[in-house]
Amino acid sequence: MQKIPVIAIFDVGKTNKKLFLFDEHYRIVYERSAKFIETVDEDGDPCENLESLRLSVFDSLRDVFKRPEFEIKAINFSTYGASFVYVDEGGQPLTPLYNYLKPYPEELQKQFYATYGGEEKLSKETASPVLGSLNSGMQLYRLKHEQPEVFQQMKYALHLPQYLSSLISGEFYTDITSIGCHTNLWDFTKGDYHAWVAQEGILEKLAPLKGADEAVPAAFPGNSYKVGIGLHDSSAALIPYLVNFQEPFALISTGTWCITLNPFNTSPLTTEELKQDCLSYLQYKGKPVKASRFFGGYEHEQEVKRIAIHFDMSTAVFKTVEYDPEIIQKLQREQKASNNLQEKTTALPTSGFAERDLSLFASGIEAYHQFVIDLVQQQVISSNLVLQGTDVKRIFVDGGFGKNAIYMNLLAAAFPDKEVYAASMAQATAIGTALAIHSLWNTKPLPNDIIELKYYAVTHQEA
């Protein structure tokens, strides 16, 4: 029997841990998922069960290697970011995998920023808003100051994808997509580690940098498969778009957060942009990507419940509600006629719909249309933070709002000079992780049909 050449991808989220096998056409030919019960660190804070994760990687691989129909050509990893594994000389973890939501000591944070030039200066240089433990470099600073004996013992601090990769390759590397995402470690003005990293003696605790498009041999003799060094998941999800589209584009990735990613905006972050929740990170080829975000998906969840309760409807109705241009035009006329209309110009975490009185609407469907109008207005302000001054011609929307006809039509109307598409792709993060090392395992040309696009023409002008 002819074996199918495949790549094995571990896609490790906070909740679900998945293993995919992709064939050379990037079709999923095998899938397995696991969930682990969290454990706690020495302070009683919840954290990932690292040992369960390690064993799961080996169990899953043992299982797929036994399958006679597949020939594994390569393995790669993508995981959530902002999480370090501190390993000794032998690659053994020295501490629990601390959660990036772990509260950060206020005094230590003040000390750090006071020592290295203040919050505003450092945030601009590292493209990292002040986020406590979510700035993973701050976790290293904390370890050095609170657990100096562990810091001494530590050979390397590895972001989670690189730790998982080291389990299979036996080698330790640092990946630019993990280092370049709000870690406080990378100086975007210099294109190198920030000066504080060397001054604190942390630089020598970071493994050598290796390209996300490179791979190394497996540590197990007799095996010929390649091992990628792993990627940060949000960078991985952008790769299929970077591979498929050469013309300047922006991607609005919609989930709990609505994040606008512009890989064609490399201008340094301004203080104003940082205040409005913008950041920059490095994509897999090392170029900066500017991003803005607001809490649109979370707000949608809350407001749909509020509308449903008020109008005594099921929230399920709003999953399939159709775009009604007449309702939109009526609401826009009323908005223009109202004297208290204020043009929104600042990117806020939410749209402000929560302040609206639902009894002013004729129906739940009308209220929902108004909510999406408000939401898209906030989306446009947020997206424009990273679109302005660039020649982006196309906007792709993936995730939940890409399936929302009201949102998509209003977005197309808001950007009449751009092509607006709903983009859908199964398992974008895992596919991006496989594409990063495409040439090292796949004999076929890069695929050009893995993203499904639906074009939204401007169907109406505002009344």
TrEMBL record:
- A single MF term (Gene Ontology): glycerol kinase activity
Q: Which positions fall inside the Carbohydrate kinase FGGY C-terminal domain?
A: 246-438
SUPFAM superfamilies attached to this UniProt entry? Actin-like ATPase domain
Q: Which GO terms describe its cellular component?
A: cytosol
> CDD domains attached here?
ASKHA_NBD_FGGY_NaCK-like (cd07772)
Reading the lineage from the top rank, the first entry is: Bacteria
A Gene Ontology BP annotation from the UniProt entry: glycerol metabolic process
Segments forming domain Carbohydrate kinase FGGY N-terminal = 7-216
Q: Which UniProt keywords apply?
A: Kinase, Transferase
Q: Name one Pfam family in it.
A: FGGY_N
| Family affiliation | Belongs to the FGGY kinase family.
Record-given protein name: Carbohydrate kinase
